[in-house]
Amino acid sequence: MACVYIPVQNSEEEVRVALDQLPRDASDILDILKAEQAPLHLWLIIAREYFKQGKVEQFRQILEEGSSPEIDEYYADVRYERIAILNALGAYYSYLGKIETRQREKEEHFILATQYYNKASRIDMHEPSTWVGKGQLLLAKGEVEQAFAAFKIVLEGDHDNVPALLGQACVEFNRGRYADSLELYKRALQVYPNCPGAVRLGIGLCRYKLGQFQKARQAFQRVLELDSENVEALVALAIMDLQANDASGIQKGMDKMRRAFEIYPYCAMALNYLANHFFFTGQHFLVEQLTETALAVTNHGPTKSHSFYNLARSYHSKGDFEKAGYYYMASIKEINKPLEFVFPYYGLGQVKLKSGDFRSALSNFEKVLEAYPDNCETLKTLGHIYVQLGQVEKAQEFLKKAAKIDPRDAQAFLDLGELLISSDTGAALDAFKTARNLLEKGGQAVPVEVLNNIGVLHFEREELELALESFNKALGDGVWLALTGNKPKSYVIEASASILDYKDMQVFHRLEEDGIPVELPWNKVTVVFNIARLHEQLHNTGIANILYRLILFKYPDYIDAYLRLAAIAKARNNLQLSIELVNEALKVNDKCPNALSMLGDLELKNDDWVKAKETLRSASDATDGKDSYAILSLGNWNYFAAIRNEKRNPKLEATHLEKAKELYTRVLVQHTDNLYAANGAGVVLAEKGQFDVSKDIFTQVQEGASGNVFVQMPDVWINLAHIFFAQGNFALAVKMYQNCLRKFYNNTDSQILLYLARTHYEAEQWQECKKTLLRAIHLAPSNYTLRFDAGVAMQKFSTSTLQKDKRTADEVRSTVAELENAVRIFSQLSAASNLHLHGFDEKKINTHVEYCKHLLEAAKVHREAAEREEQQNRQKQEAARQLALAEEARRKAEEQRKYLLERRKQEDEQKRLQKAEEHFKRVQEQWKSSNPSRRRDRSEIDDEEGGHSEKRRRKGGKRRKKDKSRSRYERDDEEPGMMDDLEEMDDEDTNRNDQDDDNGENPQDLLAAAGLEDSDMEDDEVAAAPSSAAGRRRQAWSESDDDEPSQRRPESSPVRENLAEQQESEGEIRDDNHKPNGGDALDDEED
């Protein structure tokens, strides 16, 4: 426990003061120090201990009392301690001035510090510690050169003065002489290795400035090891962690910054970095507070520039461009060159660009480009500025350079695509796709605008599936999924109902009731319109209708949605509704040329010729007569005026046709590649009966339209089909109509289907005509003309069928069904209340009904006769089928009988073979039971007698002849069994012999096979060739034939005799253990 002892005056006693138990009130200590007239170094020790304990007020109280005039007078002879007390107070107030945020208080602290240092100088003007303190004060005030002079005075007297070395190092660092500063820090450390950790902070900063980052980090870490609460070291390490530019490094850096702020909340650098962090988190209030604090506590130019920049971009992000520009300018003023800190120039350029001052913006961004010539963001921005200034080629140059410098910069390709979209659509599409792929690879969300542009470009190139995919990606999730049928519960309704109820928004209220929010963000309106247009192109008119209505539900002034709904209604032959929709669009803008042109066309189709002509002239006026579409519309008006009446006036018709031809020709003179004008000229020529010429024109127009992806002209296909129909070439007409339906209308146009049905009718293809009309009725159920035509086609088919000489029952039944359907259709038409509105005569309808009923009665009589004939034919066929079945059954029974006989024969043969095998086994057992000794005697007798064996063989032959008189059944029972036994013996012999000669017939081998081998011949048998299996088998067979009858004795059996012989010869050793016993048994029997 540290303590000091205060000597008691006029006594040898001392007052013991424990430093860790200093009283809270410094007056008690002061009373003791004054009363006992304690030495001044004890005053310093106690004051310093109070400072270490954080009791700054007690520290100041003791030092101020120690520097009072009374103390100075009493301790006049004590110079060093008095100077030390004054320098301590000067350093204290220098510290307060350094950390003070308010300028007035800061100046007051600096003044007090100056006064204390001056007072110390008056005591001893050469005291080094006083000059060091003055140098530190000057550094705190930012007076670098004066501080350098103060430290120089000290170093001239003492080259190894550590505080002066450190101060001089700080001065050199502020001058930018980092190598000199580093040498001074090293020198100070060499002179006093145990100096505080803050000394190594200067070494770390110099290393950092010199690019020696690893050594700088080591120096900062060493500072923290010596002083864990060193703010500067924490800030330096935090900056190095932040510069790692990864998540973990940023987290570590911000943790160190927060710790530094908690230790010392007035570090300007920490405040700037914290402000930067809170800017990115969106806490602008903290940004402004921290930067204002940083500006108040520092006079360092680069630091203030960073603070002004943080404050400027905070206002910039909030949309306060005026204040942002002001602080950007303040930041620029604190730096000398753009290279030192370029961000304020970039921000100021953005503010100027926002305000429309492109020249000033260009100047600022060019300064940024001077500092960083390969900066892609600056290049892209300059490209945009040049676009605004009308210098497109220079803009392309900058954007292409940006894309080349960084091929992974998606924004560069997006900007390039936007610039190329009006001049080179292919290159623009490639640029957009590249940008999309880069964004997807980077895990970023692709902007809606980009996907929409890709979809539009695909749509213009007729790549409809790719366009639909891109539009769906752009829309994402939303109410449109329920409206397009992409959810389990779909709200898609029938197209015609959707158009009729375009003002009815109940479907959207039902969506809200089902929990689906009906929201359409403004940036997706265009995408919804484009995808609706695409569905319309794909003939998904129901989906298109509901999407257009969604747009009108959220944005009622969207004119294009009204016009597209009007176009769909027009395509469905609902002219009145189409006109109503166009008028709704004109309520939004009565001068819209597209709406006026469309209204004129609709009025023309609605036979309102006067209004149509006036409307088309208004459309022409709206375009100032520069649009050829108005002239074409007037030409169409004259054409339709010529053909509009059934009872035509030839003179008036010729006049209108000639006028129409004149207008079409005028357009062709102005625009030779206008396909619509050429098509109109061909139509006029066809009306005049010049089919060959008009066909050539239509063919050329068709070729031109097919080669242009932006032109869709189904009319020319229909016109060509009309020409083929007029020329009687029905097959080509049918093909042309079908191709037109498939290519342009997805087989969903009722009018073209009516043309196709008329062609089938003229070609007398009644059933095809009926099927085509039924398809058309399905598409346009309100069109009664189609129903009437279907009834006529059914009637015509029935009449032609009944007029045939030979008819089948199915044909007659089909005729009856068709007549019933025709009667039902004509009856429905007759009962319709608005029949006259569709151009039908009620009497004519009733005539068809009566005629069909008459045919139906006649058809029923023919059906009964045909059914009777069919029944008779069916009975004959049934009788023939039964005969065929009986014959088949007989054949199968015969095959089954043959199969059973063959199977029985096989079973009998198998049983016979089994019996023969059993018999052979019994004989083999008898052979094995023969006496070996008798077999040897028999062998000796055979050797002596010699020829007797030959006689026996001949005798055996006679016996075999004799055996032929035996019954066939006995031989059949015996032979298979013997053969199987001999085969087994053959296998055993084969295993015993190493070689098998199939061609040789050695007599000794034949005897061995029969069991009659001579034991004396064993040695000869080793060298003799083995007999063949076939020879042994034949020999055994012959011997068994010879011996078997002789073994049949009623008194006894060979088995009993053999057993008796075995008992007699028991104990004898057999010579031929490896040979079978069958031969011995035969020898015993013969004996």
From TrEMBL:
Pfam families: TPR_12, TPR_19, TPR_8. Residues 863-879, 1067-1077 have a biased composition (Basic and acidic residues). InterPro entries: Ctr9, TPR-like_helical_dom_sf, TPR_rpt. The keyword Oxidoreductase does not apply. One of its GO terms (biological process) is transcription elongation by RNA polymerase II. Residues 863-883, 919-1087 are annotated as: Disordered. Keywords: Repeat, TPR repeat. PROSITE patterns: TPR, TPR_REGION. Residues 972-1000, 1013-1022 have a biased composition (Acidic residues). GO terms for molecular function: RNA polymerase II complex binding. This is Protein CTR9 homolog. Residues 950-965 have a biased composition (Basic residues). One of its GO terms (cellular component) is Cdc73/Paf1 complex. TPR repeats lie at residues 197-230, 342-375, 376-409, 714-747.
